[in-house]
Predict the structure.
Amino acid sequence: MRILNRQHALAMILLLCLIEVLLGWWTQRPWLVACAAVAGCWPMLRLTASRAPSKTASVPGKSPSPGKPTVAKVRAYVDPTDSDGLVSQMLAEGRFALLLRSRIAQGLSEAQFRQALDVLHETMGLVPDGAVIVDPTDGAAASHQQALTDMPAGANDLAAGDEQPLRVLGVAGRVVQVQRCFLDRYPVTNAQYAAFVAAGGYEQTGLWDETIWPAVLEMVDATGRPGPRFWRDGTYPEGMDDHPVVGVSWYEAAAYARWVGKRLPSDAEWVKAAAWPVPQPSGLPSQRRYPWGHSMDRAKAHLWGSEPRGTIAVDRLPEGASVGGIDQLIGNVWEWTRGNFQGGLYQPGELLLPTPMKSIRGGAFDTYFDNQATCQFQSGENPLGRRHNIGFRLAVGVCDLTLVHPTHAQGQATASSSDVRQGHAAAVEVNA
Amino acid sequence: MTPSSIQPLESYRLAEYAVPIPCYICGVGNTYDAEFCTHCAGPMALAHQANSQNIQPRMIAVLGPSGVGKTVYLGMLIDMISRQSRKMQVFSRGAFSVTLQQTTIAALARCEFPEKTPNEPDRWNWVHCQIRLPREKHPFELIVPDMAGDAVMEEVDHPHTYRVIGSLLKKCSGVMILVDTTQVTAGEVEQDFFAQKLLGYLSELDEKAGARWARQPVALVFSKADQNEACMNDPAAYAEAHLAGLWRQCRERFPLHAVFAAGVAGACAIHDSVSEGRLQIPLRVEPRGIVEPLEWLLKHLPRR
């Protein structure tokens, strides 16, 4: 309503200037014509600006500040015949994992492949394979010990990236064998997610579970455009490009993961990256309570009572990183994982949930208790929930990637640009 | 033969018994060693503290039906203020004032809600604390009891059943009325009626109550609002839309009122156990909007 009134006022000024010009021309007074023309430019410019898509700043629960610079986030067009351009665009959008798929990697030049590999090592940390205890409860050590010694032969042969409980141990939690994978060093940021929105991620039905299609229409921002809940006009608040994206449901996180060629981590992968279990001669791995050690240090995690309130940039508090160099696993935002909520401190089956829940881990900026921000603590949330303090990070299995250039591995010739185009087409196919 | 012994006369004790100690809540005289007031069952420790330290604590009541979350709200509030001392400093007076904070926080840390407050007044937790506001020169004393919701509603329906409640509300400088957001969202009308009854009771406590509450603050707090973002973002608009009767009564009878939304648990589930039956449990604790109602109340308390 306010915009409409302002537009009316500006239009009125414009009309008055026009009348002034006509009057000046009719009375043959050139100075009147010049003044009217200059005065008429201002409302013209204001009207044009008010119609342009604007990028305004906002944080959950606050109104956007007016008068912020307007930036339209539009995905740049890349010529399909320009292989370097396509690769650069995919790298800029964080879709390097697609480039490292064996079918696509075959079409890349060695330089392009090296670029993708460098980005992988820069942005993801390696989680080694091995056993991890997930969701243990008090007094569980003896049962764990028993479970590990009772492991059936061949139990370690698992499918790629899958969590498979070797045995449900009653009160003792689960021992899970994890395969080697890469995990994002930081949670997915607003800027990274904006690339997905700009690329029309919400319109690509192939990225979404078919069952969730009706709900995708409701996954809009505060202004009704597709995007995370607390964004406005299809973009994130000013100055928060390196903050973790929040206000996204589990399905949005999963769709983004498909778009970049990754997946949500399983609970066991997440816990393994954070708790960094070390095998012991006794068979029971020794795990950390927090990524940095066994006791809480609030200077290393952004939790309740930390300043500022709300999310912080993902590269803050590097001293809280895990042994494998993965940051902010504890604090800042809860992180969606692939698994279902198992009950947290309660036994599976003891809880009646109002709705099926997906697992979230790590605690957030408003997590109150230290014991709810540990590597092991699990909470749950409705997968359609778009909360102010839940974000996500992604994983990809080592076995899903080509880490040696195909020419080195198979002695093939360097890929031509047409091969790269085929690779890009395959990437789109993988997306779909 | 019985051996003889010397017994001290301790005549000063007789003198102590001779002087009645008025209960801080209802003002009725009690003996020196009474633990609870014989008239209203309020704790006499409050009177002893007031006398020995020469202080006149002010009182704020937190009201609402059973299960609305009064104990969790109060325990969380005291703990949050005592942990984050930038805006407001709180020092508990006496061990009994810490009990509510201790039981609530210990339960929430275990992902449980504290046990239901019993109906007997002598088993309620009374928080007596000293509060220092950032711009105030002198700290002031505050008493906030955690009363059972069933007892409150019984007193409202049948006045004088629980004398301590009536006496307390006559002396209160401000009240918080808690409303269960989950029930309002589900379309249940009980919360509206409960709150209207409370407001009616408050404004008709005595002949001066109407005039008194025209200048004393009333905070309407939507508890468990974390699951309803519309309520969290604009509680006043939510109250106007969903609690029409309460909203109108507030505007007409309590000009100094404000609406707030608060939440403690990010998500909840039901724990089904053989021994305790079905209990609601928090899946994580992430408080929102807890301190703001108290800050507002303290800012608007009438000056003495």
Notes: Chain B has two domains: 17-56, 57-300.
